[in-house]
Design a protein that fits this description.
The chain has 491 residues and is an alpha+beta fold. Helix content is 38%, strand content 22%. It is built from 17 helices and 15 strands. A 5-stranded antiparallel sheet has the order 1-2-3-5-4. Strands 6-7-8-10-9 form a 5-stranded antiparallel sheet. Helix 11 packs antiparallel against helix 12, helix 12 runs parallel beside helix 17 and helix 16 runs antiparallel to helix 17. The chain is globular. It starts with 9 loop residues before the first helix and ends in a 36-residue tail after the last helix. 33% of the residues are buried.
Length: 491
């Protein structure tokens, strides 16, 4: 690999993001530079050294502001490690930066958290406001929720377990997801012992706290449908809900995720067909979610995606504009059916006779091909996106699509190519936001694939390699057979 004069990889330099109105952006995105400044977060009496600082998520509005999330690893004196989530803010408007900096200084003055890290610091040298989890000014109750989670779980242990026969021995709390300003999810690992001491057990739960603007009606609607036995999949059970404080605690989904099954080589053709059947039943149901992903929302999301991608990869800006016009012109919004709208391998869980879907807060009434396209795109690119075995994931996708094609009305498929192009651009945005390696090259590849998808005729099915497979199952196999791909159909 060629290198620049200062020894950095040329490929790494290509992925550096710049914005003339955010002159220190490239420095804020450099984890090695942030390691130096993060030392200021550590309290004087806390014996810890910084091991690593990695950018995990970027939310950019060019010429306005950038929100950067980091994962910080600390090496403690006893040889153990701690992982912490951080968020940094940069603003193009200097007055806004100073006002937010003063607010941060006031809110953190004199605060010494028991875990040895300050709530936040102002890094004037690179115009960055840095805060650590759980301090989020748009989620003001998050810090109290996080630091008080032990007491909360103990106080509601009977309700969480459905029994008073158990005592809490220990609680391990980890951050599962933090969408700054929107929501946070904690993974709770409970060590339990029966009151008479005869038995011990482990239990995994998930605590979620949402912002005031979060609409929880979709999940409530799905739970109502499930309670009536009309939902073809399971939801992770809600064990505790405190709407006044905006948090819930759920049980972990049963079974194994599709991501795990693919990694371990345990996904079967039957799994693909079962999932296709569940999705087809749900998409064809008469149980509207009463919240639509309308044309206006769809086109606004598309415009934001194109604006972001065009700004970070200028070489693709004209192609992206043409794609947006074609997608807008070709997309039909004449069908609204229940759809998840965030189907990923890690959101789908398989048990012996049931499938569970998680993170259903994204669901809305929308065209069902959006769901199918989102999942298909992620499976096709699973090797790059998740590090999953690529051929097995692609073969699972082909089996899923073929089975779904046999079950869904033919008219739905007229929208598939345009939904597929839209899903590719959405995935391209995800590659940037999550700072996947070499994201500019990946984005250019996704743009090219979207152009190819739209070049197909309205009646063609891009998921099949040739007309001879159209409308048929890709490969009829024995029940329970593992995924051993045919090289021909993966071409």
């Amino acid at each position: 690999m060629s290198r620049s004069r200062d020894g950095r990889d040329v490929a790494q330099a290509k992925t550096q993001l710049t914005d003339p109105l955010l002159p220190f952006l490239s420095l804020a995105l450099d984890g090695n530079i942030l390691r130096h400044f993060c030392q200021r977060l550590i309290c004087a009496d806390f014996d810890a050294a910084i091991g690593n600082c990695q950018v995990t998520r970027v939310r950019l509005r060019r010429a306005r502001r950038c929100i950067i999330q980091y994962r910080l690893t600390l090496h403690l004196a006893d040889g153990s490690e701690q992982d912490h989530c951080l968020v940094g803010y940069q603003y193009a408007d200097r007055n806004k930066f100073r006002a937010r900096a003063n607010r941060l200084r006031r809110s953190t003055a004199g605060r010494q958290p028991v875990d040895g890290l300050l709530p936040g610091i102002v890094i004037d040298e690179i115009s960055l406001l840095l805060q650590r989890f759980p301090f989020d000014h748009r989620l003001p109750s998050l810090s109290g929720f996080y630091f008080d989670i032990d007491r909360l779980v103990k106080n509601h242990l009977v309700q969480l377990l459905g029994s008073n026969d158990w005592q809490l021995e220990s609680l391990d709390t980890r951050v599962a997801r933090w969408r700054v300003g929107l929501s946070a999810v904690l993974r709770l690992g409970l060590e339990l012992k029966r009151s008479n001491g005869s038995e011990s057990r482990q239990l995994e739960l998930f605590a979620r706290l949402d912002g005031a603007a979060t609409d929880t009606r979709i999940k409530s609607r799905l739970e109502q449908v499930q309670s009536g036995g009309r939902l073809p999949f399971d939801l992770a059970p809600t064990l505790l809900s405190v709407p006044q404080q905006g948090f819930t605690i759920q049980a972990a989904a049963g079974g194994l995720s599709l991501e795990t099954l693919l990694v371990e080589g345990r996904a079967t053709i039957d799994d693909a067909r079962r999932l296709a059947s569940v999705l087809a039943q749900w998409h064809g149901s008469d149980e509207p979610l009463q919240s639509r992903y309308t044309r206006e929302k769809y086109e606004a999301d598309l415009a934001r995606t194109v604006r972001l991608l065009g700004g970070i990869v200028p070489a693709c800006s004209l192609r992206l504009e043409r794609l947006m016009r074609r997608i807008t012109r070709c997309m039909n919004h004449d069908l609204y059916r229940p759809a998840h709208l965030d189907l990923k391998p890690e959101h789908i869980f398989f048990e012996a006779d049931r499938i569970t879907l998680i993170d259903v807060e994204s669901a809305a009434d929308a065209h069902p091909m959006l769901d199918i396209a989102i999942l298909y795109v992620r499976l096709r690119h699973a090797a790059t996106l998740y590090g999953l075995p690529g051929s097995a994931a692609r073969y699972f996708a082909l089996q899923l699509m073929s089975a779904y094609h046999d079950l869904a009305p033919a008219g739905w498929w007229r929208n598939f190519s345009v939904c597929y192009a839209w899903a590719l651009l959405t995935l391209a945005r995800h590659f940037f936001v999550c700072q996947q390696p070499a994201w500019p090259d990946s984005i250019e590849g996704f743009v090219g694939e979207a152009e190819c998808a739209l070049s197909r005729g309205a009646g063609s099915l891009p998921f099949l390699p040739g007309a001879r497979h159209r409308g048929k199952s890709v490969h009829r196999d024995r029940p329970g057979q593992r995924l051993w791909p045919n090289r021909e159909i993966l071409a």
